[in-house]
Design goal:
Elements lengths: L1 H51 L6 H15 L25 H4 L1 H21 L4 H22 L5
Helix pairs in contact: 1-2, 1-5, 2-4, 4-5
Length: 155
């Protein structure tokens, strides 16, 4: 009898536990993508500062940050964008616009554009400030293209 009551209690909790697991997965996805974009920014920032002459140009440092961006742009980010994690679904947690999920092919195309721009940047990062500047502009344009279509200005 006691075992039957425990089993019934466990079964009654299953739907609630499933909801918690889904919520945790969505939280994890949003946290992961925010961390991903933070890492992108942490590498683009020093490159932009070098390109603008705000800090001394260093071929070694520029190459390091460009290679970091290369590694990041190779990460498949789709798993970090499960449905139900847009700004409308998770107000205050994300700036992801709902049209990411209605136009996921377009969103993926923008991510590919970033990877292409980063690959070009990797080829020129260590060649000098002017070359770096051109590469950083391409990366910035790729970021802006995605932000214009798929990212809200605020939370």
């Amino acid at each position: 009898m006691r075992l039957a009551l425990l089993a019934a209690a466990a079964l009654s909790l299953s739907p609630m536990l499933a909801d918690i697991a889904v919520a945790d997965a969505a939280d994890d996805a949003v946290k992961a993508r925010r961390a991903y974009f933070t890492l992108l920014g942490a590498n683009v920032g020093p490159l932009a500062a070098m390109a603008k002459g705000e800090v001394e140009y260093s071929a070694e440092t520029a190459t390091l940050h460009a290679d970091n961006l290369g590694a990041l742009s190779a990460v498949m980010i789709a798993p970090h964008f499960p449905e139900g994690t847009s700004k409308d679904d998770r107000f205050g947690d994300t700036r992801a616009l709902p049209n990411i999920w209605t136009d996921f092919a377009g969103f993926a195309e923008k991510a590919e554009g970033l990877a292409t721009a980063v690959a070009a940047l990797q080829g020129v990062a260590g060649a000098g400030r002017a070359e770096l500047g051109g590469g950083v502009q391409q990366v910035g344009a790729a970021c802006k293209a995605c932000h214009d279509d798929y990212r809200a200005a605020d939370f």
